[in-house]
Amino acid sequence: MTTAGWIPGLADLRGYQRAWLPNDLLAGLSVAAIQVPTAIAYATLAGFRPEVGLYASVLPLVAYACFGSSRQLIVGPDSATCAMVAATLLPLAGHDPHRYADYSVVLALLVGLCSIAGGVARLGFVADFLARPILTGFLNGIGLSIIVGQFGKLSGIPLVSKAFFAQLWELGARFGETDTTTLTLGAGLLVMLIALKRLAPKVPGPLAGVIVGGLIVFAFDLSAHGVVVVGDVPSGLPSFGIPSVEPDHVHPLLVGALGITLVSYCSAMLTARSFAARNHYEIDANQDLVALGVANVAAGLSQGFVISGADSRTAVNDAVGGKSRLTGVFAAVATGAVVLFLTAPMRYIPAAALAAVLIVAGAGLIDTATLARLRGISRFEYRLSIATTLGVLIVGVLPGILVAVALALIKVLTAASRPTDAILGTIPGEEGQHDIAEHADAATVPGLIVYRFDAAPLFFNAGYFKQRIRGVVASAAEKPSWLLYSAEAANMLDFTGAEAMEEIRSELAAQGITLAIARSRGVFDAMLRLTGLADRIGAEHLFPSVRSGVHAFIERRT
């Protein structure tokens, strides 16, 4: 692969049009206006100092601009990812802020390396693994967790509990400890953010929220009246380095990194693909997996934390009219300028303002519209989505990933292990074979059952395959002479499936019934021959089409 192939951003520069520059510059500044306050808020969500969120918002943007395939996607701190980072680090680092920060760097590097390895191994297809209903349920759970977790900061109650339901209980039990000044300020800012989002969506709400909150704190000296503020934020660029990790903690960090990689990549690809479709171009999933990996390595080396695709900032980029990956570079430069020259005013930002920003962000993760559609279309997937949400809320964020993955596997295996099937017949005046259960006028040939199993016979459905054929034969109005199996849906066959077919062939033969197969091809056909099943069935009972099999039966019967 050429250098430009590995670094798509170079191709953008070669074909860059000067007319795009004003759009990209304006979009970059607009993204930074949202990114700066949001990054500070997400840093506090993940348990870091505010400046760490800014560190995670500079080099990763440049890295993705170089290596990513999306022209619109903006990477940076993300609410769901931050919640997962905190869930990974808290059990390992506890209340040691230095170890917590060090382990965050290592976690970002591990996520980056996992992503790069996955992209090189062409595992980008994992973006399709977490089905939309399951990912929706997962993000709904994250959103609810974030909202409830910020109620304490919004009301001035320092919550001790970390679990969702425990926090709800603690909030109710300690309601009398509410700080009226903090609650008034926080609730007012929350109402302002909601109003801006609905009435003036082009106004950068997070920036407006922290500016207004900081001005109010400064004007009325609210920090002297119990309102918690961000405090001093050091200016300047971070130091670069890789901290050490206790050997016993490498494994849990790696497990956390794998889970974060899976969910953050799937979430980022949903955003990248939706905006690519809107702008009429394609995403390279494997390239983006590498790009997110390089961006996370950049976040770790610059003392930041794990980043992912940011849907709200991507939407701002697209709405303002960003034309190329340079939007991310301009946003990085603007954020870097804030880190160097504009950190002093941040000391007045109230924690309640950041809580309001996170509550709005958490609410943005909750997708009730998709749930409503699922309820009317697929009750099974609706229940899976709800179960995933409950898994996140009950057992926590990282175990919730395992719940989501397990539910995805259950969904796939359930559909694959119990596929649909049909007895086929002909309809006068129409070509082909049709399901007699769906067409009352479909007719079968006496003495012949044409059976279709809508999946390949494999180890997880072989038992069901045998059960269904036995049931079809037993329920036939008259005893058949042949059972013609249409293998059109069988693109492969494993050893267990071949054994099941041999068992069925022997059982049918004992009843005087011939097993014939139509449309055997590819791996399925090769396995029939390798296992000797094709010889036992006989070449005279293997047909290229169902029609030829039916004709052969009629001719031999007469």
Attribute tags:
558 residues; mainly alpha; Transcription Regulator spoIIAA; 2 domains; six-stranded mixed beta sheet; two-stranded antiparallel ribbon; 24 helices; 63% helix
Give the strand content: 5-15%
Major β-sheet strand ordering:
4-3-5-6-7-8
| Helix run count | 24
Largest sheet: 6 strands, mixed
**What distance lies between the first and last C-alpha atoms, to the nearest angstrom?**
63 Å
Shape: elongated
Domain unit count: 2
Oligomer, anyone? Answer: single chain
- Our Rg estimate from Cα atoms comes to 30 Å
Average pLDDT works out at 89
**Residue ranges: pLDDT <50 for 5 or more in a row?**
none
Helical content class: 55-70%
What is the tally of beta strands? 8
> From the helix content, strand content and strand pairing, which structural class follows?
mainly alpha
